[in-house]
Amino acid sequence: MSWLEYTAFIGTVLALASPLGTYLTCVCERRRTFLDPLLRPIESTLYRLLGVQVGQEMSAVTYAVCFVAFGAGCAVLLFLILMLQRALPGGPSDVYLTTPMTVDLAANTAVSFTTTTTWQAYAGENTLRYLSQVTGLVAQNFLAGAAGLAVGFAFIRGIARQTAATIGNFWVDLVRSLLWVLLPLSLVGSLLLVWQGVPLNLSPYTLAHTLEGRTQLIAQGPVAALEFIKNLGTNGGGFFNANGAHPYANPTPLTNFIGMLAICALPAALMITLGQLTQRLRAGWLLLSVMVVLFVGGLAVCDHAERATPPRLADLHLVGGNMEGKEVRFGIGESTLTTVVTSNTSTGSYNAQHDSYRPLGVLVPLTFLLLGEVVFGGLGTGVYSMAMMALVAAFLGALMIGRTPEYLGKKVTVAETRWIALYVLTGPMVVLVLTAFAVLTHAGRAAVGLNPGPRGFTEIVFAYASCVANNGLALSGLDANNVFYNTTTIVAMLAGRYGLAVLALLAAGFFAGQRRVVPSAGTLPIDTPTFGLLLLGTILLTAAVSFLPALAMGPIVELLQR
Amino acid sequence: MRLAQQLRPAILSVLVLSLVTGGLFPLVLFAIGGILFPDQAGGSLTLLHGTVVGSRLIGQDFTGPEWFQPRPSAAGNGYDGTASGATNLAPDNPRLKEGAAGFAGARALAAQYRRRNGLAADAPIPIDAVTRSGSGLDPDISPANAFLQVARVAEVRKLEEDAVRRLVAQHVVQPQLGLLGDPRVSVLELNLALVRLQQQPTVGLPAAR
Q1: Residue range A39-91, pLDDT digits in tens
Q2: Is A123 within 8 Å of B83 (Cβ atoms)?
């Protein structure tokens, strides 16, 4: 039954890719769109206000500096809001805010939300004021998402342009991403969520008198303001502790489907934008196809693992799949679909608790995190996540046939290779070093208590993999709100966001300076199934070489234990 | 382009764009959403005789035999609407099956479910009846779970079993648009329907205020 839904989902993403990709091309290149009459005046007002010179383009270095400076500014602002939130008016009242906003938790949350990670070491309903959720978190969901999209645009321009010294203006890309993409889509999407039942109020927590004569206190809030943009901006942090599993955050299978579409549609469409602007449309579709192949593979494995009754419970005569940590309205189908979508896209807005997934069910999202968010990927950041791997594949392919490596009409020379190699190594290095550090220290091990053995180790790897991928998914058995994890995950999030984006931008700067090469008989074709297979192998082997030992000690040994 | 020139946009963009996205956007959303969907925006609260008895979306606990009962819950001490959460127990963690002090495992939950509903010790039961949901606030149970509780509810309430079974069947929500999600039954809606079916205030019902 679920395969009907899976097919409908992938079909919709692919059907939207071309029209949305064309629209994003217009946004990127400042071409006319149907929203221009409304938005152009707002756009120019904003530029005047901010002091942005529209015509002034930036080198890759300047672009990267602006991107980092903007992120730093946002993080400082969010940190201040969180530290001062007790002074903010409105609900929920202080008695419910039982988790103290310590300096390390505020810093962790500030970095987490400004890097689109939205790793949450706290529970929303007993930590945050409504106003901190709205002015702090909602704003950063927009801004971090838009900044990511801006970098994606700049990266595409770098490859598309010829003998250019610049790759665009960060402030212009940022403002246009907000005005033309995130704000209008979020307005419509958020209203759809309210229609389906997501609350949008500033009321005190509701006291209900149940039919049985008892009472139930129900957390409220401006939930709908956050729940759509968290997906569209590929952020993922929820209003409540249970995130997308909470019936107020995600009340119906339809809201879940809309959320999953909001996550995947734009990153998928950006592959078409990449193809259009580099005049290699087929190469864009090929990248998208490779993504779909990986997506379907992961979905098949995860669905298979979760649909079976957990073997340990076999003698209890239970009927149905692994429903521990899952909601009835989503069942196994929408739960595993959401697992595969959110683990792939830097989003992490889960609707089921992954620590209660079976070993194979955990292996799938963990693998996707470690692959570096290449399947659709984060908004904007997914462009270079996949393109960088394609560059590696083109490099390897060209070496095999003894040609100069080329991709999308650009030569991959020593200068670019240096940044690409550093890019590929950053993720594994940070994940593995931090995991080793955590396992070797008492503070790192002390957080593992609920689930002992290999699952405990998996929880640690998963945490750092998630933070480097700027994803935010967690195996929540790990007790992460403490100084050790709050600080070490900050390192991982910063490396995954700024480390990777800066390297990608620098590579894009070098590509922009090149002239586009005309394909010849000796060029390795980059839009054939053969190249697709090469790319698939490159993605899987690169991750396997780095992470197989760590995976073997975690989910794989757990799988073999039985 | 000089870097120093970027200082002003860097500082102002953080402030101005935060204001637009964290101030203006929510205000517009509140204005439109509040007018179009006031009930949903307020939390989909359900009233009976003027009293809020819960939210249609948020699961709540029912323990008496005269009620359809929800899944076990890990939110606070069970269905705590201010502490959503799950057990986070791995499937191979012995605690999940055997339980621990103050925590009923799947084995105990299954035995209790069979005892309450008069089922044989090896009668197959739907897994949602003995597992805790992701939020701890799951409002739904599977149709199979609801149908297994029909005999008990009918007996305690002195109703025709067929009438109660029909009521459950009417409350089965099919996958949205025919393909999204799994069939489900909302426990609160079903219990409210029971109350309406009997057309009289049930024992323990709070007085209207």
Answers
A1: 999 999 999 999 999 889 999 999 999 999 999 999 999 999 999 999 999 88
A2: yes
SS3 content of chain A, % helix, strand, coil (to 5): 65, 0, 30
The tally of CA atoms less than 13 A away on the side-chain side of residue A545 is 9
Contact A142, A492 (CB under 8 A): no
Instruction: Tabulate helix, strand, coil % of chain B (nearest 5).
Output: 45, 10, 45
- The pLDDT tens digits for A412-456 are 988 888 889 999 999 999 999 999 999 999 999 999 989 989 999
Q: What is the pLDDT of residues A111-155, one digit of tens each?
A: 999 999 999 999 999 999 999 999 999 999 999 999 999 999 999
Tokens 């396997």, residue?
A544
Does B72 contact A at CB distance below 8 Å? no
Contacts with A126 (C-beta within 8 Å, 6 or more apart), sequence order: A96, A97, A98, A99, A241, B82, B83
- Closest C-alpha to A361, from A382, A385, A343, A348: A343
Phi, psi of B34 (to 5 degrees): -65, -35
Cis peptide before A247 (omega within 30 of 0): no
* CB A393, CB A541: distance < 8 Å: no
Q: Which of B133, B141, B157, B209 to mutate to test the interface with A (most CBs of A within 10 A)?
A: B133
Flag whether residue B140 sits within 8 Å of chain A, measured between CB atoms: yes
Q: Find the CB nearest B88 among A50, A313, A353.
A: A353
Distance CA A486, CA A494 (A): 13
Q: Please name the residues in contact with A329: beta carbons below 8 A apart, sequence gap of 6 or more.
A: A247, A252, A253, B138, B139, B140, B181, B182, B184
Enter the pTM of the model: 0.95
Residue A66 in contact with partner chain B when CB distance is under 8 A? yes
How far is B32 from A361, CA to CA, in rounded Å?
41
Q: How far apart are CA B98 and CA B143, in angstroms?
A: 26
Q: Which of A227, A261, A257 shows the shortest CA–CA distance to A330?
A: A257
Structure tokens, A467:
């933070």
Q: Is B27 exposed, middle or buried (0-12, 13-18, 19+ CB in 10 A)?
A: exposed
